[in-house]
Amino acid sequence: MRAGEGMTAARRALLAAFVLGLGVSITLAQTALTLLALLWLGRLCGRTARDAGRWPLWRPVLAFGAVSVVSALLAPHPGAGLLACKKLLLVAALYVSVEEIDSAGQAGRVLSTLALAVAGAAALGLLQVSLCPGPEADYGLPRWLYHRCARARGFFSSYMTLAGVVSLTLLATLPRLLLDTTFRPWLALAWFASLAGLAATYTRGAWIGFASGVLALWPAIRRWRWLLAVGLLMLGLAVLGGPQRLRERALTMTNPDDVTVKERIYMWRSGIAMWREHPWLGVGPGGVKRDYRHYAQAEAFMQRTGHLHNSALQVLVETGVAGLLAWLWIWAAFFTEAVRLFRRLPAAAIRERALVAGSIAAITGFLVAGLTEHTFGDSEVVMLAWMIVALPFTVRGARTAGKPGTP
Protein backbone atom coordinates (compact mmCIF):
# COMPACT_ATOMS: atom_id res chain seq x y z
CA MET A 1 0.00 0.00 0.00
CA ARG A 2 1.37 3.39 -0.94
CA ALA A 3 1.89 6.09 1.68
CA GLY A 4 -0.87 8.26 0.19
CA GLU A 5 -3.36 5.39 0.20
CA GLY A 6 -2.43 4.53 3.78
CA MET A 7 -2.99 8.11 4.88
CA THR A 8 -6.37 8.17 3.13
CA ALA A 9 -7.37 4.95 4.90
CA ALA A 10 -6.27 6.40 8.24
CA ARG A 11 -8.32 9.54 7.68
CA ARG A 12 -11.39 7.48 6.81
CA ALA A 13 -10.91 5.39 9.95
CA LEU A 14 -10.60 8.56 12.04
CA LEU A 15 -13.74 10.00 10.44
CA ALA A 16 -15.63 6.81 11.28
CA ALA A 17 -14.32 6.98 14.86
CA PHE A 18 -15.39 10.62 15.12
CA VAL A 19 -18.92 9.86 13.91
CA LEU A 20 -19.20 6.83 16.18
CA GLY A 21 -17.94 8.88 19.11
CA LEU A 22 -20.65 11.49 18.55
CA GLY A 23 -23.15 8.85 19.64
CA VAL A 24 -21.26 6.98 22.34
CA SER A 25 -18.19 8.81 23.67
CA ILE A 26 -17.06 12.43 23.77
CA THR A 27 -13.50 11.23 24.44
CA LEU A 28 -13.48 9.17 21.25
CA ALA A 29 -15.10 11.98 19.24
CA GLN A 30 -12.74 14.70 20.45
CA THR A 31 -9.65 12.52 20.06
CA ALA A 32 -10.58 11.60 16.49
CA LEU A 33 -11.47 15.21 15.70
CA THR A 34 -8.15 16.44 17.08
CA LEU A 35 -6.19 13.98 14.95
CA LEU A 36 -8.22 14.81 11.85
CA ALA A 37 -7.70 18.52 12.47
CA LEU A 38 -3.94 18.04 12.84
CA LEU A 39 -3.79 16.07 9.59
CA TRP A 40 -5.86 18.76 7.90
CA LEU A 41 -3.59 21.53 9.16
CA GLY A 42 -0.59 19.54 7.99
CA ARG A 43 -2.01 19.33 4.47
CA LEU A 44 -2.65 23.07 4.49
CA CYS A 45 1.11 23.60 4.65
CA GLY A 46 1.10 22.77 0.94
CA ARG A 47 0.03 25.52 -1.44
CA THR A 48 -2.02 23.15 -3.60
CA ALA A 49 -4.10 22.05 -0.60
CA ARG A 50 -4.59 25.65 0.50
CA ASP A 51 -5.78 26.69 -2.95
CA ALA A 52 -8.19 23.74 -3.14
CA GLY A 53 -9.45 24.18 0.41
CA ARG A 54 -13.04 25.12 1.16
CA TRP A 55 -13.82 27.55 3.94
CA PRO A 56 -17.60 27.85 4.32
CA LEU A 57 -18.90 30.53 6.67
CA TRP A 58 -15.36 31.66 7.44
CA ARG A 59 -16.24 35.34 7.72
CA PRO A 60 -18.92 35.06 10.45
CA VAL A 61 -17.01 32.25 12.20
CA LEU A 62 -13.86 34.38 12.27
CA ALA A 63 -15.84 37.42 13.42
CA PHE A 64 -17.41 35.50 16.30
CA GLY A 65 -14.05 34.05 17.31
CA ALA A 66 -12.37 37.45 17.21
CA VAL A 67 -15.08 39.09 19.32
CA SER A 68 -14.89 36.24 21.83
CA VAL A 69 -11.13 36.61 22.22
CA VAL A 70 -11.33 40.41 22.57
CA SER A 71 -14.12 40.01 25.12
CA ALA A 72 -11.95 37.58 27.08
CA LEU A 73 -8.95 39.89 27.04
CA LEU A 74 -10.99 42.82 28.31
CA ALA A 75 -12.79 40.81 31.01
CA PRO A 76 -11.79 41.06 34.68
CA HIS A 77 -10.19 37.58 34.43
CA PRO A 78 -8.63 37.38 30.94
CA GLY A 79 -6.83 34.11 31.61
CA ALA A 80 -10.03 32.30 32.52
CA GLY A 81 -11.82 33.94 29.60
CA LEU A 82 -9.20 32.80 27.09
CA LEU A 83 -9.35 29.28 28.53
CA ALA A 84 -13.12 29.27 28.05
CA CYS A 85 -12.55 30.21 24.39
CA LYS A 86 -11.22 26.70 23.77
CA LYS A 87 -14.74 25.61 22.83
CA LEU A 88 -14.39 27.76 19.73
CA LEU A 89 -12.00 25.08 18.45
CA LEU A 90 -14.94 22.69 18.05
CA VAL A 91 -15.73 24.51 14.80
CA ALA A 92 -12.96 22.31 13.40
CA ALA A 93 -15.71 19.69 13.02
CA LEU A 94 -17.19 21.86 10.26
CA TYR A 95 -14.00 22.24 8.24
CA VAL A 96 -12.75 18.69 8.80
CA SER A 97 -16.14 17.33 7.66
CA VAL A 98 -16.10 19.49 4.53
CA GLU A 99 -12.58 18.23 3.81
CA GLU A 100 -13.19 14.54 4.48
CA ILE A 101 -16.72 14.05 3.10
CA ASP A 102 -16.36 14.44 -0.65
CA SER A 103 -19.61 13.09 -2.09
CA ALA A 104 -23.30 12.68 -1.33
CA GLY A 105 -22.77 8.94 -1.14
CA GLN A 106 -20.12 9.27 1.53
CA ALA A 107 -22.27 11.78 3.41
CA GLY A 108 -25.07 9.23 3.37
CA ARG A 109 -22.79 6.57 4.82
CA VAL A 110 -21.69 8.99 7.53
CA LEU A 111 -25.31 9.66 8.48
CA SER A 112 -26.06 5.93 8.46
CA THR A 113 -23.19 5.28 10.89
CA LEU A 114 -24.38 8.16 13.05
CA ALA A 115 -27.97 6.90 13.03
CA LEU A 116 -26.90 3.44 14.23
CA ALA A 117 -24.62 4.83 16.96
CA VAL A 118 -27.29 7.20 18.25
CA ALA A 119 -29.96 4.50 18.11
CA GLY A 120 -27.72 2.40 20.35
CA ALA A 121 -27.40 5.27 22.80
CA ALA A 122 -31.16 5.82 22.72
CA ALA A 123 -31.82 2.12 23.31
CA LEU A 124 -29.50 2.21 26.32
CA GLY A 125 -31.39 5.27 27.56
CA LEU A 126 -34.67 3.38 27.29
CA LEU A 127 -33.12 0.52 29.25
CA GLN A 128 -31.94 2.92 31.95
CA VAL A 129 -35.41 4.38 32.41
CA SER A 130 -37.11 0.98 32.29
CA LEU A 131 -34.87 -0.59 34.96
CA CYS A 132 -34.49 2.51 37.15
CA PRO A 133 -35.41 1.67 40.78
CA GLY A 134 -37.18 5.01 41.19
CA PRO A 135 -37.26 8.67 40.18
CA GLU A 136 -34.79 9.64 42.90
CA ALA A 137 -32.53 6.59 42.57
CA ASP A 138 -28.81 7.01 42.19
CA TYR A 139 -27.52 3.64 43.32
CA GLY A 140 -27.20 0.04 42.32
CA LEU A 141 -24.96 -2.03 40.07
CA PRO A 142 -23.82 -1.46 37.49
CA ARG A 143 -23.53 2.15 38.62
CA TRP A 144 -23.18 3.53 35.06
CA LEU A 145 -26.64 2.17 34.30
CA TYR A 146 -28.51 3.38 37.38
CA HIS A 147 -26.73 6.71 37.92
CA ARG A 148 -29.28 9.48 37.22
CA CYS A 149 -31.51 6.91 35.57
CA ALA A 150 -34.87 8.67 35.99
CA ARG A 151 -34.32 10.25 32.55
CA ALA A 152 -32.62 8.57 29.60
CA ARG A 153 -29.04 9.72 29.12
CA GLY A 154 -27.46 6.83 27.17
CA PHE A 155 -23.67 6.99 27.25
CA PHE A 156 -23.64 10.67 28.20
CA SER A 157 -23.50 12.36 31.58
CA SER A 158 -26.69 14.35 30.98
CA TYR A 159 -30.10 13.59 29.56
CA MET A 160 -30.04 17.00 27.83
CA THR A 161 -26.97 15.94 25.87
CA LEU A 162 -28.62 12.73 24.71
CA ALA A 163 -31.74 14.69 23.78
CA GLY A 164 -29.74 17.17 21.72
CA VAL A 165 -27.74 14.49 19.89
CA VAL A 166 -30.81 12.36 19.20
CA SER A 167 -32.91 15.31 17.98
CA LEU A 168 -30.20 16.47 15.56
CA THR A 169 -29.75 12.94 14.21
CA LEU A 170 -33.48 12.34 13.78
CA LEU A 171 -33.92 15.57 11.83
CA ALA A 172 -30.81 15.07 9.68
CA THR A 173 -31.90 11.57 8.64
CA LEU A 174 -35.67 12.12 8.29
CA PRO A 175 -35.52 13.38 4.66
CA ARG A 176 -33.59 10.24 3.69
CA LEU A 177 -36.49 8.13 4.95
CA LEU A 178 -39.03 10.21 3.06
CA LEU A 179 -37.22 11.08 -0.17
CA ASP A 180 -34.87 8.21 -0.92
CA THR A 181 -36.42 5.68 -3.30
CA THR A 182 -34.46 2.87 -1.61
CA PHE A 183 -36.26 1.89 1.57
CA ARG A 184 -33.89 0.83 4.35
CA PRO A 185 -35.77 -1.07 7.09
CA TRP A 186 -32.78 -0.89 9.46
CA LEU A 187 -32.66 2.89 9.13
CA ALA A 188 -36.38 3.16 9.86
CA LEU A 189 -35.98 0.89 12.90
CA ALA A 190 -33.03 2.96 14.17
CA TRP A 191 -34.99 6.17 13.57
CA PHE A 192 -38.02 5.10 15.60
CA ALA A 193 -35.85 3.66 18.37
CA SER A 194 -34.12 7.03 18.59
CA LEU A 195 -37.47 8.80 18.65
CA ALA A 196 -38.52 6.69 21.64
CA GLY A 197 -35.22 7.53 23.30
CA LEU A 198 -35.85 11.24 22.74
CA ALA A 199 -39.21 10.92 24.50
CA ALA A 200 -37.55 9.11 27.42
CA THR A 201 -35.18 12.03 28.06
CA TYR A 202 -38.22 14.10 29.12
CA THR A 203 -36.41 17.13 27.70
CA ARG A 204 -39.13 19.49 26.53
CA GLY A 205 -36.81 21.96 24.81
CA ALA A 206 -35.50 19.16 22.60
CA TRP A 207 -39.07 18.08 21.86
CA ILE A 208 -39.95 21.59 20.72
CA GLY A 209 -36.76 21.78 18.68
CA PHE A 210 -37.55 18.47 17.01
CA ALA A 211 -41.08 19.56 16.12
CA SER A 212 -39.73 22.86 14.75
CA GLY A 213 -37.20 21.01 12.62
CA VAL A 214 -39.92 18.79 11.20
CA LEU A 215 -41.98 21.86 10.30
CA ALA A 216 -38.90 23.35 8.63
CA LEU A 217 -39.09 20.46 6.15
CA TRP A 218 -42.56 21.56 5.08
CA PRO A 219 -41.43 23.65 2.08
CA ALA A 220 -38.85 21.08 0.98
CA ILE A 221 -40.89 17.87 1.05
CA ARG A 222 -44.08 18.81 -0.73
CA ARG A 223 -45.06 15.26 -1.59
CA TRP A 224 -44.92 14.13 2.03
CA ARG A 225 -46.39 17.18 3.76
CA TRP A 226 -49.46 15.24 4.79
CA LEU A 227 -47.25 12.60 6.41
CA LEU A 228 -45.33 15.24 8.38
CA ALA A 229 -48.57 16.79 9.64
CA VAL A 230 -50.14 13.44 10.54
CA GLY A 231 -46.92 12.25 12.15
CA LEU A 232 -46.64 15.28 14.41
CA LEU A 233 -50.32 14.97 15.34
CA MET A 234 -49.90 11.30 16.20
CA LEU A 235 -46.81 12.05 18.27
CA GLY A 236 -48.73 14.70 20.21
CA LEU A 237 -51.59 12.30 20.87
CA ALA A 238 -49.16 9.55 21.88
CA VAL A 239 -47.52 11.87 24.42
CA LEU A 240 -50.86 12.98 25.85
CA GLY A 241 -52.07 9.38 26.00
CA GLY A 242 -48.79 7.98 27.26
CA PRO A 243 -47.39 7.41 30.76
CA GLN A 244 -48.38 9.95 33.41
CA ARG A 245 -44.92 11.49 33.72
CA LEU A 246 -44.61 11.97 29.97
CA ARG A 247 -48.05 13.59 29.85
CA GLU A 248 -47.26 15.87 32.78
CA ARG A 249 -44.01 17.05 31.17
CA ALA A 250 -45.92 18.01 28.04
CA LEU A 251 -48.85 19.69 29.78
CA THR A 252 -46.65 21.82 32.05
CA MET A 253 -44.48 23.05 29.19
CA THR A 254 -46.02 26.52 29.19
CA ASN A 255 -47.16 26.61 32.80
CA PRO A 256 -45.54 29.66 34.47
CA ASP A 257 -45.92 27.97 37.86
CA ASP A 258 -43.89 24.94 36.80
CA VAL A 259 -40.68 24.81 38.87
CA THR A 260 -38.31 24.45 35.91
CA VAL A 261 -40.11 27.13 33.90
CA LYS A 262 -39.89 29.56 36.83
CA GLU A 263 -36.20 28.77 37.30
CA ARG A 264 -35.48 29.58 33.66
CA ILE A 265 -37.30 32.88 33.96
CA TYR A 266 -35.17 33.75 36.99
CA MET A 267 -32.04 32.86 35.03
CA TRP A 268 -33.06 35.00 32.06
CA ARG A 269 -33.76 37.99 34.32
CA SER A 270 -30.37 37.58 35.96
CA GLY A 271 -28.74 37.27 32.55
CA ILE A 272 -30.33 40.49 31.35
CA ALA A 273 -29.08 42.25 34.49
CA MET A 274 -25.56 41.01 33.79
CA TRP A 275 -25.72 42.14 30.17
CA ARG A 276 -26.91 45.63 31.03
CA GLU A 277 -23.69 46.26 32.93
CA HIS A 278 -21.54 45.03 30.01
CA PRO A 279 -23.66 45.63 26.86
CA TRP A 280 -21.10 45.72 24.03
CA LEU A 281 -18.55 42.97 24.73
CA GLY A 282 -20.16 41.18 27.66
CA VAL A 283 -18.61 39.75 30.80
CA GLY A 284 -16.25 37.50 28.83
CA PRO A 285 -16.45 33.80 27.87
CA GLY A 286 -17.13 31.72 30.96
CA GLY A 287 -18.28 34.83 32.82
CA VAL A 288 -21.73 33.47 33.65
CA LYS A 289 -20.26 30.62 35.68
CA ARG A 290 -17.97 33.04 37.49
CA ASP A 291 -20.33 35.96 38.17
CA TYR A 292 -23.88 34.58 38.18
CA ARG A 293 -24.04 34.35 41.97
CA HIS A 294 -23.87 38.13 42.19
CA TYR A 295 -26.97 38.52 40.00
CA ALA A 296 -29.07 35.51 41.02
CA GLN A 297 -32.67 36.29 41.94
CA ALA A 298 -33.32 35.90 45.65
CA GLU A 299 -36.24 33.55 45.01
CA ALA A 300 -34.28 31.34 42.59
CA PHE A 301 -33.40 27.82 43.71
CA MET A 302 -30.08 27.85 41.84
CA GLN A 303 -27.78 30.58 43.11
CA ARG A 304 -24.90 29.40 40.93
CA THR A 305 -24.95 28.14 37.35
CA GLY A 306 -22.67 27.88 34.36
CA HIS A 307 -25.30 28.70 31.75
CA LEU A 308 -28.62 30.48 31.39
CA HIS A 309 -30.66 27.83 29.54
CA ASN A 310 -30.74 30.03 26.45
CA SER A 311 -27.95 29.99 23.87
CA ALA A 312 -28.58 33.44 22.39
CA LEU A 313 -28.80 35.05 25.83
CA GLN A 314 -25.64 33.25 26.93
CA VAL A 315 -23.78 34.61 23.90
CA LEU A 316 -25.17 38.09 24.55
CA VAL A 317 -24.17 38.10 28.22
CA GLU A 318 -20.68 36.72 27.64
CA THR A 319 -19.72 38.50 24.39
CA GLY A 320 -22.17 41.40 24.25
CA VAL A 321 -24.06 42.82 21.30
CA ALA A 322 -21.01 42.42 19.08
CA GLY A 323 -20.76 38.71 19.83
CA LEU A 324 -24.47 38.09 19.41
CA LEU A 325 -24.53 39.79 16.01
CA ALA A 326 -21.56 37.71 14.84
CA TRP A 327 -23.17 34.53 16.19
CA LEU A 328 -26.46 35.27 14.42
CA TRP A 329 -24.49 36.03 11.25
CA ILE A 330 -23.18 32.45 11.28
CA TRP A 331 -26.65 30.96 11.21
CA ALA A 332 -28.09 33.52 8.79
CA ALA A 333 -25.25 32.78 6.37
CA PHE A 334 -25.75 29.04 6.77
CA PHE A 335 -29.48 29.14 6.04
CA THR A 336 -28.95 31.50 3.10
CA GLU A 337 -26.38 29.19 1.50
CA ALA A 338 -28.28 25.98 2.27
CA VAL A 339 -31.65 27.20 0.98
CA ARG A 340 -30.03 28.64 -2.13
CA LEU A 341 -28.32 25.32 -2.85
CA PHE A 342 -31.51 23.33 -2.25
CA ARG A 343 -33.41 25.46 -4.75
CA ARG A 344 -30.71 24.96 -7.37
CA LEU A 345 -30.61 21.18 -7.03
CA PRO A 346 -32.59 19.35 -9.72
CA ALA A 347 -35.50 17.18 -8.63
CA ALA A 348 -33.59 14.10 -9.75
CA ALA A 349 -30.78 14.80 -7.22
CA ILE A 350 -32.69 13.00 -4.47
CA ARG A 351 -29.73 12.14 -2.24
CA GLU A 352 -28.34 15.65 -2.39
CA ARG A 353 -31.71 17.24 -1.70
CA ALA A 354 -32.26 14.94 1.28
CA LEU A 355 -28.87 15.86 2.75
CA VAL A 356 -29.42 19.60 2.40
CA ALA A 357 -33.00 19.46 3.69
CA GLY A 358 -31.91 17.35 6.66
CA SER A 359 -29.18 19.83 7.49
CA ILE A 360 -31.63 22.75 7.41
CA ALA A 361 -34.12 20.87 9.60
CA ALA A 362 -31.49 19.76 12.13
CA ILE A 363 -29.96 23.21 12.59
CA THR A 364 -33.44 24.71 12.90
CA GLY A 365 -34.15 22.25 15.71
CA PHE A 366 -30.77 22.97 17.29
CA LEU A 367 -31.42 26.72 17.42
CA VAL A 368 -35.04 26.42 18.59
CA ALA A 369 -34.05 24.01 21.36
CA GLY A 370 -31.41 26.58 22.29
CA LEU A 371 -34.15 28.98 23.34
CA THR A 372 -34.62 26.97 26.54
CA GLU A 373 -31.35 24.99 26.71
CA HIS A 374 -27.77 26.13 26.13
CA THR A 375 -27.28 23.76 23.19
CA PHE A 376 -24.39 25.85 21.87
CA GLY A 377 -22.49 25.21 25.09
CA ASP A 378 -22.82 21.41 25.03
CA SER A 379 -19.65 20.07 23.40
CA GLU A 380 -21.16 16.78 22.20
CA VAL A 381 -24.14 18.53 20.63
CA VAL A 382 -22.05 21.35 19.12
CA MET A 383 -19.63 18.97 17.42
CA LEU A 384 -22.53 17.16 15.81
CA ALA A 385 -24.19 20.44 14.82
CA TRP A 386 -21.00 21.66 13.09
CA MET A 387 -20.74 18.37 11.20
CA ILE A 388 -24.33 18.68 10.03
CA VAL A 389 -23.71 22.30 9.01
CA ALA A 390 -21.01 20.93 6.68
CA LEU A 391 -23.39 18.71 4.69
CA PRO A 392 -24.71 21.33 2.23
CA PHE A 393 -21.17 22.48 1.52
CA THR A 394 -19.98 18.93 0.88
CA VAL A 395 -22.83 18.53 -1.60
CA ARG A 396 -21.96 21.81 -3.29
CA GLY A 397 -18.29 20.90 -3.43
CA ALA A 398 -18.98 17.44 -4.87
CA ARG A 399 -21.24 18.84 -7.59
CA THR A 400 -18.68 21.52 -8.46
CA ALA A 401 -16.03 18.83 -8.80
CA GLY A 402 -18.37 16.67 -10.82
CA LYS A 403 -18.33 13.74 -8.34
CA PRO A 404 -21.35 11.44 -8.48
CA GLY A 405 -23.50 10.80 -5.46
CA THR A 406 -22.73 7.14 -5.23
CA PRO A 407 -24.90 5.00 -2.95
Written account of the structure:
With 407 residues, this protein is an all-alpha fold. The protein has one domain (10-44, 87-401). Helices cover 70% and strands 0% of the residues. The chain is built from 18 helices and no strands. The chain has helices at residues 3-24, 26-43, 47-52, 58-74, 78-84, 92-100, 104-131, 143-146, 159-179, 185-200, 204-216, 225-240, 244-251, 259-277, 287-291, 311-344, 350-369, 379-401. The radius of gyration is 21 Å and the shape is globular. The two termini are 26 Å apart.
Structural domain tally: 1
The number of E-state strands comes to 0
Query: Strand pairing plus helix content: what structural class?
Result: mainly alpha
Q: Compute the gyration radius: what is it?
A: 21 Å
Summarize the structure.
The protein contains 18 helices and no strands.
Q: Tags for this entry?
A:
single chain, 407 residues, mainly alpha, 18 helices, 0% strand
Helix-strand blueprint:
Layout: H1 3-24, H2 26-43, H3 47-52, H4 58-74, H5 78-84, H6 92-100, H7 104-131, H8 143-146, H9 159-179, H10 185-200, H11 204-216, H12 225-240, H13 244-251, H14 259-277, H15 287-291, H16 311-344, H17 350-369, H18 379-401
Helix pairs in contact: 1-2, 1-7, 2-6, 4-5, 4-16, 6-18, 7-9, 7-10, 9-10, 9-11, 9-17, 9-18, 11-17, 14-16, 16-17, 16-18, 17-18
